[in-house]
Each structure stands twice: as C-alpha cells, then as structure tokens.
Amino acid sequence: MVGAAYAAVPLYNWFCRTTGFGGTPQLATAAPAEILGRKLKVRFDANVAGGLPWRFEPEQRSVDVKIGEVVTVSYQVINESARETEGVASYNVSPPTAGAYFSKINCFCFTDQRLKPGEKRDLAVVFFIAPELVKDSEQDGLDTITLSYTMYPARQAEPGQAERGAASAGGRS
Fold first, then answer.
1. Is the domain covering 2-157 a CATH 2.60.370.10 domain?
2. Who's near 105: CB < 8 A, 6+ residues apart?
3. Distance between CA 56 and CA 77 in Å, rounded?
4. pTM exceeds 0.85 for this model
5. CA distance linking residue 42 with residue 171, whole number of Å
6. How far separated are the first and last CA of the chain, in Å rounded?
7. Mind listing the pLDDT tens digit for each residue in 62-83?
8. Buried b (16+ CB within 10 A) or exposed e, 5-33
C-alpha cells in the first residue's frame, strides 16, 4: 500500500501530461503541419504563492491565435527581496478540456529559477493549439483558453542535509 501511494503522484502526473486531463497542456517537439483559419483568444495569468517575494506577470494579457500557429509569449519575474531566492512554476489550462489540445514546445515551468536580489528576468513559453481541436465537437463553442502559471518557492536542501543523507545511506547494508 505504501508503494502504491508513493507511486500514485508520478503516475497521476504522467496520466495528466499524456491525456491533457485536468487542463494539463501537452508537450510537443515540433509545430503542426497546418495552420487553420479559426482563431481563439489565449489569456495569460500569473500568480505567486506565499513565501516567495517575487513579482510575476505576463508581458501581455492575451493574444489571438490561429489554430496550429506557433506563438511565443513572455512572462517577467522580478525578485523583490534583498536576498537570492529560488522559485519554480507550475501551470494549468482552462477550460480543462482544452488541455488536450494546448501544446507547449518550450516552457520555463518545472525548472528552478534562481534570482539575485532585485534581478529581473524574462521567461518565454512557446505553444500552439493543435488542429485536432476542430474535430472535437465539444470544443465547437470554445473561443477563449487561459494559460495560468503559479510560482512557488523551490524546495532547497538545508546545508549539510545531502552529506548527512549520503553518510546514513552509506552506513546501511
């Protein structure tokens, strides 16, 4: 039971990435072969979780995108503290059913971002809306998708923790 519980989170994450369940965008390595005439508005949202002294916002609030068109947008993050801090972004797409068709080629999500005091950085996301969306009759009325990011404080090992863990692991047989 403990093993099943431990494996549940990575399996659920894999399931969501594979199917788009819960608004999880797909990951892509290349642009689609065609660009369709239908346009959707893609809105951008940015949030910062408590404990992270950052300002985080999209450079533009929305764009009109043709289905199949590759688009690059930027978010700006600023460390407003007097110390170096580290954060990591997670994301989702709304409505959740659109996650199966929202594909990202490049993204800053799930990559630790370490910022010096007062440092400002532009973070880009490259995406497209898959042409398969037009074959899904449930998406006929879809005209707006929201891509939402939240920055969280990155977990950091306490000084000496890695050494203690290695020493205790090495002492076991």
1. yes
2. 28, 29, 30, 31, 70, 126, 127, 128
3. 4
4. no
5. 54
6. 24
7. 999 999 999 999 999 999 999 9
8. eeeeeeeeeeebeeebeebbbbebeeebe
- Residue 111 CB neighbour total at 10 angstroms: 10
| DSSP for residue 154 | P
CB burial string 61-82: b at 16+ within 10 A, e below:
ebbebbbbbbeebebebebbee
Q: State how far the Cα of 38 lies from the Cα of 89, in Å rounded to an integer.
A: 30
Contact 23, 96 (CB under 8 A): yes
| CB 120, CB 74: distance < 8 Å | no
Residue 147's nearest CA partner among 38, 74, 42 is 42
Locate 61 and state its tokens.
Answer: 């609030």
Rounded distance between C-alpha atoms, residue 17 and residue 19, angstroms: 6
Cα–Cα distance, 88 to 82 (Å, whole number): 19
Each residue's pLDDT tens digit, 22-55 = 445 656 666 777 899 999 999 999 999 999 999 9
